Amino acid sequence: MPAAPLPEPDAAARFASDALLARIAQELREGGNWMSFARYMALALHAPGLGYYAGGAAKFGAAGDFVTAPEIGSLFARTLARQVADLLRPGDAVLEFGAGSGALAAALGEALKALGVRAEYLILETSAELAERQRARLRTSVRWVDTLPEAFSGVMIANEVLDAMPAHALAWTPQGVLERGVCLDLGQLAWCERPASGEVLAAAQALKIEAGERYEFELNLAARAWLRTVAGQLARGVLLVIDYGFPVHELYHPQRSRGTLMCHYRHRAHGDPFYLPGLQDITTHVDFSALARVAEASGIEVLGYANQAQFLVNCGIADLLGAVDASDARRYAPLAAEAQMLLSPAEMGELFKVLALGRGSAPPLRGFTEGSRAHTL
Ligand SMILES: C[S@@+](CC[C@H](N)C(=O)[O-])C[C@H]1O[C@@H](n2cnc3c(N)ncnc32)[C@H](O)[C@@H]1O
């Protein structure tokens, strides 16, 4: 349970959470009272009709649980549009993964048009409930696809998608690497551990973590598998992964010994993934080095890596701010506040990173001309 009391869900939300809990409990009973944390996270976030992303929770904005960069306003999308416009060639498309409320698609589509760029905008969204919301907002300006287009050419964008992919939980101990899974203990969801094995153990050992004491961390194998698939279908163009995370040496740091598992419920962050399953977001930080290694092994190139602030500055966020008269407080103040959220190291500027991966597009890309950190990956 989170330390401070959190707002109570209404009866319908609690009913939905109880239904998901029953679904998880049934699977646990059938599976010898153990499931990997990745399986638990997949159910808690994506179980059809009941998972956090698949169900009816508000999720985004003031009435929801968290705010993403495109939800703050259009400045993020308008700045990103400059990079996207540079990269698109005639006949190319834009493909957005996990488009949430549709905020980025709406603003980026508009911004590209304003820059004189015409490109089809595709969305690949795993949540039927969110795809419905996106359709209501975006109507005919977008085409939704259920699978990755084969031999895609253009720009792909995944903003805060990989952190929501199911991750395995591990504990490095002096006795060896344990996999932290989920079981029922006196009817309640609880952590249960057993020796890690197979692919999970191999990936954990590859991190070469020396556990003097206990060291807990997560391993997002789903993100790596996703990238392998995406790389395989990228005929020409660029994938922009935007998310919070670090390169391997900063992520698996001795001081971060409890991992990065983070839950978001009504704009409060806490560390209990078993609290109200289906009603809260569960996330882990992205290992950008792991993505770079998968990209290289899949035959696509690392074209740039920078923190969000540096990327947006390189793309000219200051020009967009400067285009508004600073003495016009009604227009300028919200824009300046938005820029502050996007750029400040205490907000999204430093923790969030932008990784550009691609085939057939030569660096340097506009967003990485200054302050690129690709050498740290
Ligand atoms: C945290 S939200 C971010 C939404 C949006 N990109 C934004 O920045 O506001 C995560 C989104 O990714 C979607 N999603 C999760 N896993 C996905 C996957 N494997 N492929 C495509 N979308 C996915 C969710 O349904 C949701 O739309």
Key attributes of the depicted protein:
377 residues, alpha/beta, eight-stranded mixed sheet, five-stranded antiparallel sheet, 16 strands, 36% helix, globular, binds S-adenosylmethionine
Architecture blueprint of SSEs:
Elements: H1 11-30, E1 35-36, H2 37-46, H3 69-72, H4 75-87, E2 93-97, H5 103-114, E3 120-124, H6 128-138, E4 143-145, E5 152-159, E6 168-173, E7 176-185, E8 188-195, H7 198-206, E9 215-219, H8 221-233, E10 234-246, H9 248-251, E11 262-265, E12 268-270, E13 281-283, E14 286-287, H10 288-297, E15 301-307, H11 308-314, H12 317-322, H13 329-343, E16 352-359
Parallel strand pairs: 2-3, 2-5, 3-4, 5-10, 10-14
Antiparallel strand pairs: 1-7, 6-7, 6-9, 7-8, 10-16, 11-12, 11-13, 15-16
Helix pairs in contact: 4-5, 8-10
This protein binds S-adenosylmethionine.
S-adenosylmethionine is lined by residues 53, 68, 70-71, 97-100, 103-104, 124-127, 130, 159-161, 164-165, 226.
Mean pLDDT: 95
Strand elements, count: 16
Which regions are unreliable across 5 or more consecutive residues at pLDDT < 50?
none
Give the percentage of residues in beta strands: 15-25%
Explain what this protein looks like in three dimensions.
The protein has 377 residues and is of the alpha/beta class. Helix content is 36%, strand content 24%. The strands form 3 sheets. Strands 2, 3, 4, 5, 10, 14, 15 and 16 form an 8-stranded mixed β-sheet that branches. Strands 1, 6, 7, 8 and 9 form a 5-stranded antiparallel β-sheet that branches. Helix 5 links the parallel strand 2 and strand 3. The two termini are 35 Å apart. Bound molecules: S-adenosylmethionine. S-adenosylmethionine binds next to helix 3 and helix 5.
